[in-house]
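[INFO] parsing input record for Tetraspanin
[DEBUG] input buffer:
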Amino acid sequence: MSGKHFKAHEVSCCIKYFIFGFNIIFWLLGVAFLGIGLWAWSEKGVLSNISSITDLGGFDPVWLFLVVGGVMFILGFAGCIGALRENSFLLKFFSVFLGIIFFLELTAGVLAFVFKDWIKDQLNFFINNNIRAYRDDIDLQNLIDFTQEYWECCGAFGADDWNLNIYFNCTDSNPSREKCGVPFSCCTKDPAEDVINTQCGYDIRAKAVSEQRTFIYIKGCVPQFEKWLQDNLTVVAGIFIGIALLQIFGICLAQNLVSDIEVVRESWFGECSFNLFSLPPVTHQFVYLKHLKQTKGCNEGKPLYSCSTIVLDSGIFLISSIKDKYVWRTNKTIVNK
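[DEBUG] output buffer:
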C-alpha cells in the first residue's frame, strides 16, 4: 500500500523556553519581594497582630513590596508553568493579566496628563498625610527621609508643612524637643561632615526664613518632583515605553505559543480530512491505521470524522505523542483505551 507521510505540527521550542526562562526569573523576583515584605511585617509585629495594619495613618512602604511581589509572583507562575506544561489556560490568563496591567498603566498615564492639577493636589494630600504619621512607622520615616534628601526638599510645598506633625509643630502646647523643627533630612549637607547630625533641624523654623535657607531646604517636594520630572522627561518616557513594549512582546509571545498548542491539538484530534486508504502503514510523527477490518459510512477520500463506525484490531489509530495509547473515534467522540 503506497501513501505519503504527514508532517506534524510542533510547538516552537524557542518561544516556549524563552517564556519559561523569562518568567521563572520574574517569579523568583516576586518570591523575593513577598519574602522581604513579610519579613518587614514580621519585624514590626504586624503578622502577630493583623489588626495593626489599619492603625498606621500614613502609607506603609511594605505594601509596595507585597503588591508588586504578588503581581510578579502570579504573572511569573502562570507564564512559567503555562509555557513548561503547554497549558493554554495559564498562558491565556498570563496574556489577559498582562493586558489588564498594560491598560491600567496607559489609563493612568493619560489621566495624569489630562488632570495635572488634580494629581498635584492628590500628591500634596498624600505627602501631608504621611508627614502626620512620620514617627509612627520606621519604614515610612526612612522613605520620607530618602525623598527629602534625594530631591533636596522639605515638606510638600515648604518646611512649614511639618506643622502638621505633633512632634514638629510650633504650638505652645507641644512639649517635644523637636518643636518648631524639621527632620534631619531637610538639612543642607556639609561635605566636611562624616557623621550625620540628626539634630540639625531643631528649632530651625523659629528663625527667619532668610536664616533658614542657610541650614535647610526651603523648596517643597511637590515642586521639586515636577522639576525633576521635566529635567528627566526623556529618560522617564523611555522607561515607560520600554516596559510597555516588553508587556506587548510578552502578550504576543504567549498568544503565539497558545496558537501553536491549539494547532498541535487539532493535528491530534481535529477533523483530519486525509484519505483513509492512502496512509502509510507506520508514521511515527503522526498517525497510522492498523489492520482495517470494517468501515461503515466511510468511503475512500472522505474525512475521518465522517465515519460513523470504524473497527480495528487494536483501535482505529495510534498517536505516539500521547504515550502510545490506542485511540478510536465513534460519532466524533474520542475514547482512550
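[INFO] The chain is about 50% helix and 5% strand.
[INFO] shutting down worker
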